[in-house]
Amino acid sequence: MKLGLVIDLDVCVGCHACTVSCKQWNTSGATGPLTDLKPYDEDPQGVWFNRIRHFEVGDSPNSKTVNMPMSCMHCEQADCVDVCPTGASYKRVEDGIVLIDQDKCMGCNYCSWACPYGARELDRDTGTMKKCTLCIDRIYDENLEEIDRQPSCVITCPSNARHFGDFDDPESNVSTLVRQRGGHQLMPELGYSPTNHYLPPRIMKPMPTAEAKPGSLISSVKKWVNQSVSR
Amino acid sequence: MQPAFSVIAFTVCSGAGFGLYMLLAMAHVLGFLPILSRGEILFGIVLAMVLVIVGLLSSTLHLANPKNAWRAFFRFRTSWLSREGVFAVLFFPFAGLYLLGVYFADMKTGDIGFFSKLMGLFGVMLAFATLFSQGMIYGCLKTIKQWNTPLTPTNYILLAFMTGALLLNVVLAFSGQAVGVMGGITVGLIVTAGISKAIYYYWIRTPSGSSINTATGFLRGNVRLLDVGHTAATFLTDEFGYKTAKGQLNLFKAVVFVCGFFIPFLLTAFSVIGASAAVFSALLAFVIAMVGITAERWLFFAEANHVVNLYHGAQRT
């Protein structure tokens, strides 16, 4: 099995629900807690497994806002695992999930240097590195309903932009989506072969926009009066 | 990349220590400096070992969870950091046996016997392997273009030899000897290391193949970061988002070349031709070179641009 996520950049609205639900689930999960330092201060800092960056693609007026959620890509060529001197970082043979043994990590930061996607963050409180577990404590939990055996972020997403599945199975939901929608990897040139794929936004016809009509003399005067009065 | 003082101190100190040991042991065992006395060799080796130990201790300061540091020796097969640790620790028994050999040397002939010589040379090989691994820790990272080059381990090794040679000159000068052959070797090492570092600085001026386009997958058109998605700094922006003024980088580069290479070159050349007081110029050359090489190590980190910065507003790395 090669478990991973497909993220649909066409429908992601950038609401950060996945990041918050990830934090909520995982802070009491397998590699929790996701410590927050100075949470009510001016510069709060904490561990997140999932972060969303917002980009503008193209030049205005033909530009588009793209929200890009990023978590561990569970790379096939996971350099973060190779560089780890203690053996705390490992990639599971059975499902390809990359994990960190919190009891072995010495907090040298070397794995975070090797990760191009910023998936690994040091917990300055425990002194250990932490990262997305693909919710191993959810996806294999037989006490949950089958539909709930998915990562927390996937279940939470209100716009259904996140999909979880097995990339080794060519007929799985994720493989089909990547095939049909032309899913791509991030920074493939580095050769990490990340498992997670991103579906590009669909190409839509430009939406016609009406020019604003110039107002009559009376409406201009009214507008001016209104503005003056409100001050 | 955030320059970590403990790592800078570690690489500079242990580099000088390993460099001194390698040159001293080779000079003694292979006999290209026949004038070395027993006291000088003992002092030099102990000094080298102290520098390496100080460096190694300093390196553990940057660990967030040092109680697990002992586990760092167990991934020799894949991790250069692990290899560096193993080689550095293995160095000590061999260097120690060589030290004992020198201590119990034949008083009349000064011969230390085949076994001690062999141990000394094994120590040289391990010191070299440690320095190579130290460079490869950085050289193997595909995420940082400025490090991902064979020039990285080359520079680590050359600078270790160079600072070690300058330190050996200090040892020789204190025992009242002319630097002689060693002065010539030092000048050669300074020139080689300086040229290699200059090539490196030219090489890192070209950006890497990764850009904000490959990072987001939108290969056509301009891509701009609108919002990083967090209001305060994160581990990632602290660790990789280190920014300095361009003027400061140029100033440090000037320090590297003037203090690291040019002044030590002049001082060593003067003492070779006998134009300056040996102890003073040798000591000054070493101290100034260490300042320059510390600046070099600081720049090595400050100029490293990790690709994750593409997600925090950089257009290219």
UniProtKB/TrEMBL annotation, chain A:
InterPro entries, per database record: 4Fe4S_Fe-S-bd, 4Fe4S_Fe_S_CS, ET_IronSulfur_Cluster-Binding
Q: Which domain of life is it from?
A: Bacteria
Record's PROSITE patterns? 4FE4S_FER_1, 4FE4S_FER_2
Which keywords, in A-to-Z order, does the entry hold?
Answer: 4Fe-4S, Iron, Iron-sulfur, Metal-binding
Alphabetized CDD domains for the sequence: PsrB
UniProt KW Nucleus keyword: no
GO MF assignments: 4 iron, 4 sulfur cluster binding; metal ion binding
Q: In this protein, which residues make up the domain named 4Fe-4S ferredoxin-type?
A: 3-33, 62-95, 96-125
Kindly give the Pfam families that the UniProt entry links to this protein.
Answer: Fer4_11
**SUPFAM superfamilies for the chain:** 4Fe-4S ferredoxins
PANTHER family, sorted: PROTEIN NRFC, PROTEIN NRFC HOMOLOG
- Name recorded for this polypeptide: Ferredoxin
User: Which source organism?
Assistant: Leucothrix arctica
Q: What is the lineage of its organism?
A: Bacteria, Pseudomonadati, Pseudomonadota, Gammaproteobacteria, Thiotrichales
UniProtKB/TrEMBL annotation, chain B:
Membrane-crossing ranges are 7-35, 41-64, 85-105, 117-141, 153-175, 181-203, 251-273, 279-300
Q: Which Pfam families match?
A: DmsC
User: Tell me, what is one Gene Ontology molecular-function annotation carried by this entry?
Assistant: dimethyl sulfoxide reductase activity
Establish whether keyword Transmembrane helix is in the entry.
yes
**Any keyword Transmembrane?**
yes
Listed under GO biological process in this entry are: anaerobic electron transport chain
Q: What keywords tag this UniProt record?
A: Membrane, Transmembrane, Transmembrane helix
Cellular component (GO) terms are:
dimethyl sulfoxide reductase complex; plasma membrane
Which InterPro entries does the record associate with it? DmsC (IPR007059)
Q: What is the name listed in the Swiss-Prot or TrEMBL entry for this protein?
A: DMSO reductase
